[in-house]
Amino acid sequence: MRRTLVYKTVTLNGIKTPGIIHNGGYHFTCFDVYENGRVNDWNFEDFEHFIKDVQSGWVVTSIPDGEEISCFHLGAWKISDSKWYFTPETYIDYIKSLVLELNPTWANIHTYQEKKVNGIIVGESGTGTVYKVDTENVDKFFPKKVVGEDRSLFYILDGCYYLVRLLLFKDKSILIHGCGEEKLLDLNSLEELIKNGIVCSTPPLGAKVIIENLGEFTIAEEGYSNDIEEIFAELEDDYRKLNGEKTLNELCLEVFEAYKANPSDELKEVLKEAYERVPEHLRMYLGDMDTKDGEIIDIIYGPEYWNQWNEDK
User: Mind telling me which InterPro entries this protein's record contains (predicted)?
Assistant: First the structure.
Protein backbone atom coordinates (compact mmCIF):
# COMPACT_ATOMS: atom_id res chain seq x y z
CA MET A 1 0.00 0.00 0.00
CA ARG A 2 1.27 3.46 -0.92
CA ARG A 3 1.90 5.56 2.20
CA THR A 4 0.47 9.08 2.42
CA LEU A 5 3.16 11.37 3.80
CA VAL A 6 2.51 14.14 6.33
CA TYR A 7 4.65 16.46 8.41
CA LYS A 8 4.11 18.88 11.29
CA THR A 9 6.10 21.95 12.19
CA VAL A 10 6.58 22.34 15.94
CA THR A 11 6.71 25.83 17.45
CA LEU A 12 9.08 26.39 20.38
CA ASN A 13 8.68 29.44 22.56
CA GLY A 14 11.85 31.22 23.56
CA ILE A 15 13.48 34.32 25.01
CA LYS A 16 16.44 36.35 23.74
CA THR A 17 19.08 37.32 26.29
CA PRO A 18 22.51 38.97 25.93
CA GLY A 19 25.64 36.86 25.94
CA ILE A 20 29.29 36.76 24.90
CA ILE A 21 31.02 34.23 22.64
CA HIS A 22 34.81 33.85 22.90
CA ASN A 23 35.97 32.60 19.50
CA GLY A 24 39.14 34.32 18.29
CA GLY A 25 37.81 37.44 20.02
CA TYR A 26 34.93 38.51 22.22
CA HIS A 27 31.64 38.74 20.37
CA PHE A 28 28.52 40.28 21.88
CA THR A 29 25.38 38.52 20.73
CA CYS A 30 21.97 37.43 21.96
CA PHE A 31 21.27 33.81 22.85
CA ASP A 32 17.91 32.29 21.95
CA VAL A 33 16.80 30.26 24.99
CA TYR A 34 13.97 27.78 24.34
CA GLU A 35 11.38 26.06 26.50
CA ASN A 36 12.87 22.61 25.79
CA GLY A 37 16.24 23.65 27.27
CA ARG A 38 18.07 24.29 24.01
CA VAL A 39 20.21 27.42 23.82
CA ASN A 40 21.46 28.93 20.58
CA ASP A 41 24.99 30.07 21.48
CA TRP A 42 26.31 29.56 17.93
CA ASN A 43 25.98 25.89 18.84
CA PHE A 44 22.52 24.38 19.15
CA GLU A 45 22.41 21.11 21.03
CA ASP A 46 20.86 20.78 24.52
CA PHE A 47 21.12 22.30 27.99
CA GLU A 48 23.94 19.99 29.10
CA HIS A 49 25.94 21.00 26.03
CA PHE A 50 25.30 24.66 26.89
CA ILE A 51 26.78 24.05 30.36
CA LYS A 52 29.85 22.53 28.68
CA ASP A 53 30.10 25.58 26.38
CA VAL A 54 30.29 27.79 29.47
CA GLN A 55 32.77 25.53 31.24
CA SER A 56 35.01 25.34 28.15
CA GLY A 57 35.11 29.14 27.73
CA TRP A 58 33.15 29.22 24.47
CA VAL A 59 30.49 31.19 26.34
CA VAL A 60 32.05 33.72 28.73
CA THR A 61 30.58 36.10 31.26
CA SER A 62 33.27 38.78 31.16
CA ILE A 63 35.77 40.48 28.86
CA PRO A 64 39.17 41.51 30.27
CA ASP A 65 40.04 45.21 30.24
CA GLY A 66 42.17 46.04 27.21
CA GLU A 67 40.40 43.47 25.05
CA GLU A 68 37.93 44.29 22.29
CA ILE A 69 34.19 43.66 22.24
CA SER A 70 32.68 43.27 18.78
CA CYS A 71 29.03 43.55 17.82
CA PHE A 72 27.84 42.26 14.44
CA HIS A 73 27.04 45.03 11.93
CA LEU A 74 27.70 47.68 14.59
CA GLY A 75 31.37 47.93 15.53
CA ALA A 76 34.22 46.90 17.83
CA TRP A 77 35.81 48.71 20.76
CA LYS A 78 38.56 48.13 23.31
CA ILE A 79 37.20 48.39 26.83
CA SER A 80 38.35 49.48 30.29
CA ASP A 81 36.90 49.82 33.80
CA SER A 82 34.59 46.88 33.20
CA LYS A 83 32.12 45.41 35.65
CA TRP A 84 30.36 42.17 34.83
CA TYR A 85 27.25 40.90 36.55
CA PHE A 86 27.63 37.11 36.29
CA THR A 87 30.11 34.36 37.05
CA PRO A 88 29.99 31.24 34.86
CA GLU A 89 28.01 29.44 37.58
CA THR A 90 25.45 32.21 38.11
CA TYR A 91 25.05 32.66 34.35
CA ILE A 92 24.15 28.98 33.95
CA ASP A 93 21.62 29.41 36.77
CA TYR A 94 20.22 32.50 35.06
CA ILE A 95 19.78 30.73 31.70
CA LYS A 96 18.13 27.81 33.51
CA SER A 97 15.74 30.29 35.16
CA LEU A 98 14.69 31.50 31.69
CA VAL A 99 13.91 27.93 30.64
CA LEU A 100 11.88 27.48 33.84
CA GLU A 101 10.04 30.73 33.14
CA LEU A 102 8.91 29.17 29.86
CA ASN A 103 8.59 25.63 31.18
CA PRO A 104 7.99 25.64 34.98
CA THR A 105 7.95 21.84 35.31
CA TRP A 106 11.13 21.28 33.24
CA ALA A 107 9.12 18.88 31.07
CA ASN A 108 10.13 17.46 27.68
CA ILE A 109 13.68 18.77 27.89
CA HIS A 110 15.56 18.04 24.68
CA THR A 111 18.43 15.55 24.55
CA TYR A 112 20.72 16.14 21.60
CA GLN A 113 21.50 13.33 19.17
CA GLU A 114 24.00 13.82 16.39
CA LYS A 115 22.51 13.52 12.91
CA LYS A 116 24.44 12.35 9.86
CA VAL A 117 23.50 12.31 6.19
CA ASN A 118 25.82 10.27 3.97
CA GLY A 119 28.38 10.29 6.76
CA ILE A 120 28.32 14.08 7.17
CA ILE A 121 27.20 15.65 10.46
CA VAL A 122 24.15 17.84 9.84
CA GLY A 123 23.31 20.64 12.22
CA GLU A 124 20.25 22.84 12.45
CA SER A 125 19.81 26.55 12.92
CA GLY A 126 18.83 27.66 16.40
CA THR A 127 17.96 31.20 15.36
CA GLY A 128 14.41 32.06 16.32
CA THR A 129 12.01 34.50 14.70
CA VAL A 130 11.48 37.75 16.59
CA TYR A 131 7.80 38.58 17.02
CA LYS A 132 5.26 40.57 19.00
CA VAL A 133 1.62 39.77 19.67
CA ASP A 134 -0.76 41.56 17.30
CA THR A 135 -2.77 44.03 19.41
CA GLU A 136 -4.63 45.50 16.43
CA ASN A 137 -6.38 42.33 15.28
CA VAL A 138 -6.96 40.64 18.63
CA ASP A 139 -7.77 36.93 18.76
CA LYS A 140 -7.95 35.80 22.39
CA PHE A 141 -7.91 32.10 21.45
CA PHE A 142 -5.16 32.15 18.83
CA PRO A 143 -3.13 35.37 19.25
CA LYS A 144 -1.54 36.42 15.99
CA LYS A 145 2.17 37.10 15.72
CA VAL A 146 3.74 40.06 13.93
CA VAL A 147 7.23 38.99 12.84
CA GLY A 148 10.26 41.25 12.95
CA GLU A 149 14.01 41.68 12.73
CA ASP A 150 16.39 42.82 15.47
CA ARG A 151 19.49 45.03 15.41
CA SER A 152 21.91 46.38 18.01
CA LEU A 153 22.34 50.12 18.56
CA PHE A 154 23.20 52.52 21.36
CA TYR A 155 20.55 54.48 23.24
CA ILE A 156 21.75 57.38 25.39
CA LEU A 157 20.02 57.66 28.75
CA ASP A 158 21.23 59.66 31.78
CA GLY A 159 24.63 60.11 30.14
CA CYS A 160 25.19 56.36 29.59
CA TYR A 161 25.24 54.47 26.31
CA TYR A 162 22.95 51.45 26.55
CA LEU A 163 23.65 48.71 24.03
CA VAL A 164 20.05 47.97 23.11
CA ARG A 165 18.09 45.65 20.86
CA LEU A 166 16.01 47.49 18.30
CA LEU A 167 13.13 45.34 17.05
CA LEU A 168 11.55 46.34 13.73
CA PHE A 169 8.25 44.70 12.80
CA LYS A 170 6.33 44.11 9.61
CA ASP A 171 3.78 46.79 10.58
CA LYS A 172 6.64 49.35 10.77
CA SER A 173 6.43 49.60 14.56
CA ILE A 174 9.68 49.50 16.55
CA LEU A 175 10.40 48.31 20.08
CA ILE A 176 13.59 49.10 21.97
CA HIS A 177 14.69 46.67 24.69
CA GLY A 178 17.70 47.00 26.96
CA CYS A 179 17.42 50.45 28.57
CA GLY A 180 14.79 50.05 31.25
CA GLU A 181 11.16 50.09 30.19
CA GLU A 182 10.23 48.99 26.67
CA LYS A 183 10.08 51.89 24.22
CA LEU A 184 7.58 51.94 21.32
CA LEU A 185 8.51 53.92 18.18
CA ASP A 186 8.05 54.06 14.44
CA LEU A 187 10.62 54.75 11.71
CA ASN A 188 9.92 58.49 11.73
CA SER A 189 10.37 58.85 15.48
CA LEU A 190 13.51 56.68 15.32
CA GLU A 191 14.90 59.01 12.65
CA GLU A 192 14.25 61.95 14.99
CA LEU A 193 16.07 60.20 17.84
CA ILE A 194 19.01 59.64 15.50
CA LYS A 195 19.03 63.29 14.39
CA ASN A 196 18.94 64.38 18.05
CA GLY A 197 21.86 62.07 18.92
CA ILE A 198 19.87 59.89 21.32
CA VAL A 199 20.22 56.76 19.19
CA CYS A 200 23.66 56.23 17.67
CA SER A 201 26.17 53.64 16.49
CA THR A 202 29.42 55.26 17.64
CA PRO A 203 29.96 55.97 21.35
CA PRO A 204 32.83 58.40 22.00
CA LEU A 205 36.04 57.53 23.81
CA GLY A 206 35.43 57.52 27.54
CA ALA A 207 31.72 56.76 27.19
CA LYS A 208 30.17 54.42 29.74
CA VAL A 209 28.39 51.52 28.04
CA ILE A 210 25.77 49.42 29.82
CA ILE A 211 24.55 46.05 28.56
CA GLU A 212 21.43 45.42 30.58
CA ASN A 213 21.63 42.17 32.54
CA LEU A 214 25.22 41.49 31.47
CA GLY A 215 27.73 44.20 32.38
CA GLU A 216 29.17 47.67 31.86
CA PHE A 217 32.45 49.17 30.70
CA THR A 218 34.16 52.29 29.36
CA ILE A 219 35.13 52.79 25.71
CA ALA A 220 38.95 52.94 25.61
CA GLU A 221 39.54 52.77 21.84
CA GLU A 222 37.48 52.29 18.70
CA GLY A 223 38.37 49.48 16.34
CA TYR A 224 35.66 50.33 13.81
CA SER A 225 32.00 51.33 13.72
CA ASN A 226 29.33 51.55 11.04
CA ASP A 227 27.68 54.89 10.35
CA ILE A 228 24.22 55.33 11.82
CA GLU A 229 22.90 56.47 8.41
CA GLU A 230 24.01 53.14 6.91
CA ILE A 231 22.34 51.20 9.72
CA PHE A 232 19.12 53.20 9.28
CA ALA A 233 19.17 52.27 5.58
CA GLU A 234 19.56 48.64 6.66
CA LEU A 235 16.50 48.98 8.90
CA GLU A 236 14.50 50.33 5.96
CA ASP A 237 15.69 47.29 4.01
CA ASP A 238 14.54 45.01 6.85
CA TYR A 239 11.09 46.53 6.50
CA ARG A 240 11.09 45.81 2.75
CA LYS A 241 12.09 42.19 3.37
CA LEU A 242 9.45 41.70 6.08
CA ASN A 243 6.79 42.90 3.64
CA GLY A 244 7.89 40.71 0.76
CA GLU A 245 9.59 43.48 -1.20
CA LYS A 246 12.99 43.18 -2.82
CA THR A 247 15.92 44.36 -0.73
CA LEU A 248 18.59 46.76 -1.99
CA ASN A 249 20.99 43.81 -2.31
CA GLU A 250 18.49 41.86 -4.41
CA LEU A 251 17.77 44.85 -6.65
CA CYS A 252 21.50 45.40 -7.16
CA LEU A 253 22.08 41.73 -8.02
CA GLU A 254 19.23 41.86 -10.55
CA VAL A 255 20.93 44.74 -12.37
CA PHE A 256 24.27 42.92 -12.10
CA GLU A 257 22.83 39.84 -13.83
CA ALA A 258 21.20 42.04 -16.49
CA TYR A 259 24.55 43.76 -17.13
CA LYS A 260 26.41 40.45 -17.45
CA ALA A 261 23.80 39.24 -19.95
CA ASN A 262 23.90 42.45 -21.99
CA PRO A 263 26.73 44.86 -21.04
CA SER A 264 26.13 48.52 -21.86
CA ASP A 265 27.13 51.95 -20.56
CA GLU A 266 23.52 52.58 -19.58
CA LEU A 267 23.28 49.41 -17.48
CA LYS A 268 26.70 50.13 -15.99
CA GLU A 269 25.38 53.46 -14.68
CA VAL A 270 22.22 51.80 -13.35
CA LEU A 271 24.41 49.18 -11.64
CA LYS A 272 26.55 51.91 -10.07
CA GLU A 273 23.46 53.64 -8.68
CA ALA A 274 22.03 50.36 -7.34
CA TYR A 275 25.36 49.39 -5.76
CA GLU A 276 25.82 52.73 -4.02
CA ARG A 277 22.34 52.52 -2.51
CA VAL A 278 23.34 49.34 -0.66
CA PRO A 279 24.62 50.11 2.88
CA GLU A 280 28.40 49.93 2.75
CA HIS A 281 28.74 47.17 5.37
CA LEU A 282 26.34 44.95 3.37
CA ARG A 283 28.06 45.24 -0.01
CA MET A 284 30.34 42.30 0.77
CA TYR A 285 27.31 40.02 0.37
CA LEU A 286 26.93 40.92 -3.32
CA GLY A 287 29.02 37.94 -4.35
CA ASP A 288 30.36 34.66 -3.01
CA MET A 289 32.59 34.24 0.06
CA ASP A 290 35.76 34.66 -1.99
CA THR A 291 34.97 37.45 -4.45
CA LYS A 292 32.40 39.35 -2.34
CA ASP A 293 31.52 42.53 -4.30
CA GLY A 294 34.80 42.57 -6.23
CA GLU A 295 33.28 41.76 -9.62
CA ILE A 296 30.78 44.62 -9.36
CA ILE A 297 33.54 47.01 -8.26
CA ASP A 298 35.61 46.00 -11.30
CA ILE A 299 32.71 46.85 -13.60
CA ILE A 300 31.67 50.22 -12.20
CA TYR A 301 34.97 51.67 -10.94
CA GLY A 302 37.66 49.82 -12.89
CA PRO A 303 41.29 49.16 -11.82
CA GLU A 304 41.63 52.70 -10.45
CA TYR A 305 39.55 51.64 -7.43
CA TRP A 306 42.00 48.91 -6.46
CA ASN A 307 45.01 51.16 -7.04
CA GLN A 308 43.53 53.69 -4.61
CA TRP A 309 42.55 50.92 -2.20
CA ASN A 310 46.14 49.62 -2.11
CA GLU A 311 47.47 53.14 -1.51
CA ASP A 312 45.06 53.66 1.40
CA LYS A 313 45.98 50.38 3.11
Answer: DUF7638 (IPR056055), DUF7639 (IPR056056)
